[in-house]
Specification:
The complex is a heterodimer of chains A (about 110) and B (about 110). Chain A is mainly β. Chain A has strands spanning about 5, 10-15, 20-25, 30-40, 40-50, 55, 65-70, 75-80, 85-95, 105, 110. In chain A, the strands form two sheets. In chain A, strands 2, 4, 5, 6, 9, 10 and 11 form a seven-stranded mixed beta sheet that branches. Chain A is globular. Chain B has about 110 residues and is mainly beta. In chain B, a hairpin with a 6-residue loop joins strand 4 (about 30-35) and strand 5 (about 45-50). The chains are: A mainly beta (about 110), B mainly beta (about 110). The interface of A and B includes residues 50, 58, 99 and 104 of A.
Amino acid sequence: DADVTQTPRNRITKTGKRIMLECSQTKGHDRMYWYRQDPGLGLRLIYYSFDVKDINKGEISDGYSVSRQAQAKFSLSLESAIPNQTALYFCATSDPGYGEKLFFGSGTQLSVL
Amino acid sequence: GQQVMQIPQYQHVQEGEDFTTYCNSSTTLSNIQWYKQRPGGHPVFLIQLVKSGEVKKQKRLTFQFGEAKKNSSLHITATQTTDVGTYFCAGPPATDSWGKLQFGAGTQVVVTP
């Protein structure tokens, strides 16, 4: 949905570099998520946040950190990128009033060389 | 931990044919959601099923939630080229206070004209 915007769309970086992926939303949802997609593995949850003061680890948080700067902004950082972090990353939002269905951004394709 | 399996992983369909894709969870789910991801796109919510045995239809798509709330199916009739994409099921465990969605690996659908 255009209401969830991810930047950059594509990024190539080198091993050991710090990189930040950004997500902003205009849907007014409190809940935001970062997922990683690898071929054949579906979508795996990295971190999630229910509000600005609430951040939780997902199933694959090692090597990642997040920051919830505001209700509308949720960024994902790779402190020291490694090649197996090459993947498609999605930000998503949800609202309990909509049955927790997820609204995804367009994704960031990250390649770590 | 909870596992969600989808079969088949790949589905090649002749245009006009019907097919079914299946989703099986190792644990009871509170609900099941289905998403569709077009090639190069992001996952888009299709439907949510909540009740045991529930069946919902969207035009040529029929979704079913099993009686034990551990499995689901998506049946597409008269497949069209617009059905191309990867279909994901996702569900939160019934035992979680907040149900983190566990995604299956998806069924990639290719349609031959």
